[in-house]
Amino acid sequence: MASESSFDIVSKIDLFEVDNAVGQTLKEVSTRFDLKAAGTEIRREEHVLHLGASDGYKLKSVVEILLQRLAKRGVPLKGLTHSKVQVTPTGRASQQIEIQDGIPAEKAREIVKHVKEQKLKVQASILADQVRVWGAKKDDLQAVIRSLRETDLGIHMQFTNYR
To answer: 8: which of 20, 87, 110, 125 lies 20 to 30 Å off by Cα?
Structure first.
């Protein structure tokens, strides 16, 4: 009797690491001469980072520092969605960066379609904000993982619960 194996495709970003990167960024910005008086503001509300600075150039510098700190802390940059920079009439610039939490429905459908196109004996289904793939052969599941890693779907993916 063959038992089925499975794994889940999820997208989770560690918010604790994001908070640490924000703290490191604020500390560096407060010590840099060119950014000291920039009126820099970085705060996180749930899954959105709000950034602000006195002008667009300084905001761009702050975003670059933040992205470096996030990368050093192991936060995947593919899991971030940047909005357009908003400039007020007084010249103050602000931007929002959305932190991906779960796989969006349209991307989940793309993943399921990609798995079915592999013509392997595996099944894929969407479960809320994740995708579960199961099949009888572990080699087929590993082939699916390898194929998804090689394909750029524009989102951050992790493979968990491999059984």
So the answer is: 20
Cβ atoms of 114 and 123 within 8 Å: the answer is: no
Query: Under a CB-based contact definition with an 8 Å cutoff, are residues 54 and 37 in contact?
Result: yes
Q: Which of 48, 28, 81, 89 is nearest to 40 (CA)?
A: 28
Are 77 and 67 in contact, with CB atoms under 8 Å apart? yes
**DSSP at 38:** S
Which domains, ranges and CATH numbers included, belong to the chain? Answer: 5-11+102-160 (3.30.70.860), 15-99 (3.30.70.990)
Q: Which long-range contacts (CB under 8 A, 24 or more apart) does 42-46 make?
A: 42/66, 44/15, 44/18, 44/19, 44/99
* Ordered alpha helix ranges (H), the chain: 15-31, 56-72, 105-117, 138-150
Distance of alpha carbon 130 from alpha carbon 155, whole angstroms: 12
